[in-house]
Amino acid sequence: HEIRKRYTDFEKLHTDLQAQTGAPPPASLPAKSWLRRTVNNDALTEERRLALQTYVKAILEAQDGKWRSSSAWRSFLNLPSGTSTVTANGQLSPASQRRGSVGITDPNYWLEAHRDLKSQISTARQQLKARDSAQTPQQQHATSADAKASLVRAATSVEQLESGLRSLSSSDQSSSKRLGDGELRRRRDLLLTAKSEIQALETVLLSASTSHPTLPSTAAPASAASKSSLFTHAPSAKPGRVLGGPLKETERTRELDNSGVLQLQTQVLAEQDEDVMSLGKTVGRLKDMGILINEELEVQNEMLGLIDGDVERVQGKIDVGRKRIARIS
Fold first, then answer.
1. Selected residue with higher pLDDT from 82 and 178
2. Which residues are CB-neighbours of 120 under 8 A, at least 6 positions away?
3. Distance (Å, whole) CA 160 – CA 99
4. What b/e readout covers 176-203, taking b as 16+ CB neighbours within 10 angstroms?
5. Alpha helices in 102-180, H assignment, sequence order
6. Would you state the torsion angle of the CA atoms of residues 209, 215, 216, 221, taken in this order, to the nearest 10 degrees?
7. Is residue 105 within 8 Å of residue 179, measured between CB atoms?
């Protein structure tokens, strides 16, 4: 596993690890030299690389895994969040967990993994839009493969979140990790919404072949006689065009012959196509607005869930205080 980072990236990682875990990492960063530069100094470059490697190895081999479980560490290694990314012996853990495993049992990491899930669903939706606007079959195939991979990752995240939620709802959890009934219901609703969105996107992905049918290329060309017969007037004693049905004349067609009516119909069809395209764009904008409103509602639901948890904790403290007052009185 190889990563390429600058020294400023390590400085940001060190700051984020301290902010998220409340404790500095087990090793400190190498001091930054103000007089020497690594651009034309191979010895300093190698010294800096070994020092940064020692810094990373210290985090990997630490007994306490809180630094390895932080979102800053997973983002630094470009790994999916929501699971323990590195074990104590420095081995990378699998990105997905087997069905029936414990899953994500930390409530805070659960919400973070759910935010990553929403990002994966949004990425798949954008890839499907890019597939619809692709100009070549190769581009359509590539974007479809990317969308399918994003949906697979999203489905794996849903399994992890469901497994973790089952563990969080069990009675053997500690008081610091146990969630209230209202919060559990809210998180189940979030998972149901995510699963329905994934299923809808999978339906769109599978219907790609039927929604874009190809025209047959073996159609026989029209003959010259067939073309000329379209514009040939039937013999008639009266001047003007011959109508093929009992429809009445209109102001737009009264002075036109067959060729003029054909051109008028072509123009009307083109105008209708433009109206349909304009309507489709309007529907697309309304769909985007609905998606944004849905995302905003999810954020508000998360905030309400946090408030619900705070209310439950405060209510517990009030109950304890009432019991103590009752014993005193």
1. 178
2. 150, 151, 153, 154, 157
3. 8
4. eeebbeebeebbeebbebbeebbeebbe
5. 107-132, 137-168
6. 180
7. no
CA distance 185 to 155: 20
Q: How far apart are CA 101 and CA 205, in angstroms?
A: 29
Lookup: tokens for 135: 């100009």
CA distance 131 to 143: 5
- Cβ atoms < 10 Å from Cβ of 248: 8
Query: Mean pLDDT across the chain, nearest whole number?
Result: 76
Predicted TM-score (pTM) of this structure: 0.39
* Rounded-to-integer distance, Cα 239 and Cα 236, Å: 7
> Would you state the structure tokens that stand for residue 327, as one six-digit string?
């014993």
Residue 107 one-letter amino acid: P
pLDDT, residue 223, reads: 59
With contact defined as beta carbons under 8 Å apart, do 165 and 102 qualify?
A: no
User: pLDDT of 143-197, one tens digit each?
Assistant: 888 888 888 888 888 888 888 888 777 756 555 566 778 888 888 888 889 988 9
Torsion angles phi and psi, residue 114, rounded to 5: -70, -35
